[in-house]
Write a structure and sequence with these properties.
Length: 220
């Protein structure tokens, strides 16, 4: 059969609920982006009282995603099998990166530390993308998986503001994009990355003149 985008959504019974958080975060981040006074006040408070100079945020942003595979290795299985969960994670990562990077170039906001391309926060968007991925996979097993994932992502957002790398608007926008990207991928995923469908993939090298590469073929 022909592969069609049919918007199969396992959580459709939840209606619009999954979109409330990213909508609020993106809306608030956008509004604060144009509020220079609020951004400056938050920056000054953080630098005076909660300044941070470490590099833990560079690693913590990936923690929820790593945790998913660590739990799988320990025999704790999430909602989807390894193939589908990996496909969902990769697509979420790519979509989130594309949206975040494009906005960074289009807006080209100056960071609190004087550097460029501040809006939105890439660290925060990745952190919340991975956090929401973990929530989608393990949230039904126990709410503590979601609490841990979102706590790690929120900590990343705090660190980005506390070290002067981003404005508060940047991290709110980044958080919204991260959740939105993952939710959209789950909405459109076809759930065909199981053993039966993976057997239909063939990968082989090719050469055309001086051009070399690999080709992936899927038999429907």
């Amino acid at each position: 059969s022909i592969h069609r985008l049919n918007f199969r959504y396992p959580d459709k019974k939840r209606g619009l609920n999954p979109w409330i958080a990213p909508t609020l975060l993106i809306s608030t981040g956008t509004t604060l982006h144009f509020s220079t006074e609020t951004k400056n006040n938050v920056r000054d408070f953080m630098q005076d009282n909660l300044a941070y100079r470490g590099k833990a945020d560079d690693y913590l942003q990936y923690a929820p995603g790593v945790a998913v595979y660590a739990f799988n290795a320990m025999g704790i299985n999430g909602k989807n099998n390894f193939g589908n969960s990996t496909a969902l994670m990769v697509k979420s990562f790519l979509l989130n990166g594309a949206i975040t990077d494009r906005l960074k170039y289009w807006v080209n906001e100056t960071r609190p530390n004087g550097e460029g391309r501040s809006f939105p926060s890439g660290h925060t968007s990745k952190a919340f993308m991975f956090a929401h991925f973990m929530h989608k996979e393990f949230g039904e097993l126990s709410p503590w998986y979601s609490v841990g994932a979102y706590s790690a992502a929120t900590t990343v957002g705090y660190m980005r503001v506390a070290k002067g790398a981003h404005w508060i608007s940047d991290v709110l926008m980044g958080a919204g994009i991260g959740i939105f990207s993952t939710e959209l991928v789950y909405l459109t995923h076809q759930y065909k990355w199981d053993n039966e469908h993976l057997k239909r993939f063939d990968i082989f090298p090719f050469q055309l003149g001086n051009q070399k590469g690999v080709t992936m073929v899927y038999t429907f």
